Amino acid sequence: MTDETDVGARAMLRQLIGHGPLTRPELGAALGLSRASTSPIVNDLMRRGLVAEISTASRGGRGRPVALLDLDDENFTVGGLEIGSDRVLACVYTLRGRRLLRNERSVEVDAANPRGLLRHAVAALHEALDMVDQGGRRLLGVGVSVGGLVDATSGTIKYAPILGWRDVALHAGVTEAFGGRAPVLLDNDANFAALAEQRQRRRDGLPAASLVYLTGTYGISAGIITGERLWRGERGLAGEFGHLIVEPDGRACVCGRRGCLDTRAGMSAIIAAGLGAATAKRRAGVEPDGVAAGVDRLVALAQSGDAGVVDALIEAGTWLGRGAALVAAMLDPRLVVLGGHYARLAPWILEPAREVFRAALLMPAPEYDQLEVSGLDAWAPVEGAALAALIAVADGVHDLP
């Protein structure tokens, strides 16, 4: 493959990742290529097992059958791994994002010990990959997600408050533990989740060129999509909205300061406030183990009509709406998406959040809601991490197979 063809192949791959399936004429037109230039590149990508003709169905059920091109779902996989304080999540996907196998493990090691937690996480990913590899698929790459300040260029965790990590060379650690099995990339959970959200919205025919995804897991980070692309900021550290100070002299935050948004609308704060206000009696000393278990308990109590929990969730929703309004005022996205566990708590927090959000905006959009709940679950950062591994191939960061 010549350098010129290589550039064309990567551009075509990127177009199909973002907008497939497409016909050959549509694919060529999107890239400004003639039919004569399009066909050799398509044929080469098909030979490599990256692109396939997936359908001969007619568009809209009328007219002659139309051959559509999309990513080949049979030959390759991409992997995603999320490292959290209470669990690690590992999943393997096809190139079109179909989940093949996922593995969840509770964290029983000391989270402050990066090496021990890393071994635990990579073992979960190896286990999932080994089962999928039996089908003969080839792994293109793996994305690794962590909540906190991540320097994706150097592969370093600058600061992860929930884990107590500072300046941890995680990319090098994962690469070593992974044994060179495939290229590895690292980013924070919000950036990866935003990529997954963007792809899902495109598939659903919804606008996706400008959005902010707020995580609802270990803290409040923002994944920012603008001009169709992920925006990381000057140093790659953009999006830590959970540590905006919204309440001077407010509650102590895990970051060492006071009054951060995380202390009111972060998931740990919501769980603590909700369970603390619960009218249902709890057995002494019995507390949920981890964020996911805490959310399970909150949902169960709220569904049972526990007034204390419902009131606490409504208050958390108002704080979340204020924070989302700050995001919208600074970045002016088409919409702000509440992801992760926020989606599970949406029946109680969404309307209070929207009410405060609308009131705080200088110029709200009258024709659509600018604050929405994600249709993805808490695995969105893992899905986005795997997607990022595929995008890295299309962008030339990793080699074409």
Automatic annotation (TrEMBL):
Gene3D superfamilies, from UniProt?
A: 3.30.420.40, Winged helix-like DNA-binding domain superfamily/Winged helix DNA-binding domain
Task: Give the top-rank taxon of the lineage listed in the UniProt record for this protein.
Answer: Bacteria
Q: Which InterPro entries match?
A: ATPase_NBD (IPR043129), HTH_MarR-typ (IPR000835), ROK (IPR000600), WH-like_DNA-bd_sf (IPR036388), WH_DNA-bd_sf (IPR036390)
UniProt domain HTH marR-type: residue ranges: 12-53
| Family per record | Belongs to the ROK (NagC/XylR) family.
Q: What is this protein called?
A: ROK family transcriptional regulator
